Every structure is written in C-alpha cells, then in structure tokens.
C-alpha cells in the first residue's frame, strides 16, 4: 500500500520518528556538553514535533470537510500553514531570546526534527 494514499499514517510515522530524534539529540547533547546544550537541543526538537502535531490536528477537520468547495479547502490549507509558521517562529524566538537557550543547539535540533519529513517517505517506498 502506498503512503500517498495514507497521508495521515505517514504524518504519524513522522511524529514517532521526531520523538526518537528528540531522545537521541537530548542524550547526545547531555553526554557531549551537559545540561545546557541538552536543554536547547530538546527544545528545538520539541518545536519540530509541535509543528507536526499541529499539522495532524488540522488534518482531522479537513478530512470531515472534504465536500467543501475548493476555495474553502484552500483557505484552510493557507490558514494552517500560517498558524504553524507563526507558532514555530514565536517558539524559536522565545527559546533563543527569553529562555536564553543555546541558539546553535536549538536550530540544529529543530532542523534534525524537520529532517524526519525527509526520512519518513523512504519507509513508504519499500
């Protein structure tokens, strides 16, 4: 069965993969540099996971409203994208600004968490 037909299960797999990445990044950060780096690394990975969970949350109502007109469905897509962009931006600014977490650790772990979106479809091609 192709993952293109099962988009939601692919997103679930991505979220699970991000949790694994979160654990690995947190442990590596703690072992290599201590609690300060590990906190920033875990925070960045959590932001990536929150982004994925928001996508899953927005996918549920859209599944129920498949019969909406195209422009309404497109509007929901744009709204979801904008919401996720703003939330991720605010969380990154809070982590690196207000919480004073290590910016490099936050950004690298966020990018590694987002990398799960590249890895997840590879499982589906088998």
What are the low-pLDDT stretches, counting only 5+ consecutive residues below 50? Answer: 1-5
Radius of gyration from the CA trace?
16 Å
**What is the domain total for the residues?**
1
Overall outline: flat
Portion of residues in helices?
over 70%
Distance between the termini: 10 Å
Number of β-strand runs:
0
Compressed to H and E, one letter per element, the order equals: HHHH
Can you give the mean pLDDT? 84
By helix and strand content, what is the structural category?
mainly alpha
Major sheet size, sense and barrel closure: none
Please give the count of helices.
4
Residue fraction in strands: under 5%
Q: What does this 3D model show about the protein?
A:
There is one protein chain. Helix content is 86%, strand content 0%. With 126 residues, the chain is mostly helical. It has one domain. Helix 1 (7-33) runs antiparallel to helix 2 (35-64) and helix 2 crosses helix 4 (103-124). The N and C termini lie close together (10 Å).
List keywords for this structure.
single chain; 126 residues; mainly alpha; flat; disordered N terminus
Structure summary:
This protein has 126 residues and is mostly helical. The chain has helices spanning 7-33, 35-64, 70-98, 103-124. 25% of the residues are buried.
């Amino acid at each position: 069965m192709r993952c293109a037909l099962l988009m939601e299960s692919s997103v679930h797999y991505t979220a699970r993969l991000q949790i694994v990445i979160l654990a690995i990044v947190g442990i590596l950060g703690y072992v290599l540099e201590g609690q300060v780096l590990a906190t920033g690394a875990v925070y960045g990975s959590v932001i990536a996971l929150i982004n994925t969970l928001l996508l899953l949350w927005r996918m549920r109502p859209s599944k129920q409203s498949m019969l909406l007109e195209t422009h309404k469905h497109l509007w929901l897509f744009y709204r979801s994208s904008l919401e996720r962009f703003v939330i991720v931006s605010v969380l990154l600014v809070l982590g690196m600004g207000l919480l004073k977490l290590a910016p490099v650790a936050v950004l690298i772990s966020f990018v590694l968490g987002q990398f799960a979106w590249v890895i997840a479809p590879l499982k589906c091609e088998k």
